[in-house]
Specification:
Layout (H helix, E strand, L loop, with lengths): L2 E6 L4 E9 L10 E11 L5 H19 L3 E5 L7 H20 L4 E4 L1 H9 L6 H12 L8 H19 L19 E3 L1 E7 L4
Parallel strand pairs: 1-4, 4-5
Antiparallel strand pairs: 1-2, 2-3, 3-7, 6-7
């Protein structure tokens, strides 16, 4: 797995991050480089079902463009609000279906597992995760929502765990690219892929 896509699902803002292994067998966080990070955003004024459809298509576009070796999605958790949990489950299903269409394997990690691996504390808050990623990868969140750093944490956690169990990372032969600095339209003006400005 040379290219890992992390997805932090949300029906209004979904974070995503692409991480590439710089070595055939990465063993340290510095052995990875950030390719791109940002958010998928759908217009909150649209009907819920339409937003889900647009986010599904936006992820399909992202998968087609980058062709990651694996997509890591935050595992569903039980929420006190049943309606919120249901909507999250529906969105995760739309993203998993997008991965299936693109023949990209899906991995899942719990939020607590990611927090413990990245920040050393299973209850770390979003700011602690962002600070840990800055220390480990030199990634500066800038004006991006925390959803993007949460997705990056998913990518790095999966990469480190995969290295530990020696599942194997292949080098795609492509040089690592910088974090994107532009905003691109996605499929419709109402579903946007937003990336950080430097």
């Amino acid at each position: 797995m040379s290219l890992i896509l992390g997805i932090d699902p949300g029906s209004r803002i979904t974070g995503f991050a692409l991480l590439r292994a710089k070595k055939p067998v990465p063993v340290m966080p510095r052995d990875f480089s950030v390719v791109e990070a940002g958010v998928l955003r759908a217009d909150a004024a649209l009907p819920y079902a339409q937003r889900i459809g647009l986010l599904h298509l936006a992820l399909c576009d992202l998968l087609t463009e980058h062709r990651p070796n694996v997509c890591v999605i935050e595992r569903a958790f039980f929420d006190k609000n049943a309606n919120s949990a249901l909507k999250l489950g529906e969105l995760r299903g739309a993203y998993i279906a997008a991965c299936a269409r693109s023949q990209v394997p899906v991995a899942e990690l719990t939020p607590a597992d990611v927090k413990k691996t990245i920040a050393g504390n299973g209850r770390a808050d979003k700011e602690a995760i962002a600070l840990a990623l800055h220390a480990l990868l030199g990634f500066n969140r800038g004006s991006l929502p925390h959803d993007a750093t949460d997705a990056l944490a998913l990518s790095l956690c999966h990469g480190m765990k995969s290295a530990v169990v020696n599942l194997g990372f292949g080098n795609s032969g492509r040089a690592p690219t910088r974090v994107q600095s532009t905003t691109r339209a996605q499929l419709t003006s109402r579903a946007q892929l937003v990336t950080p400005r430097r």
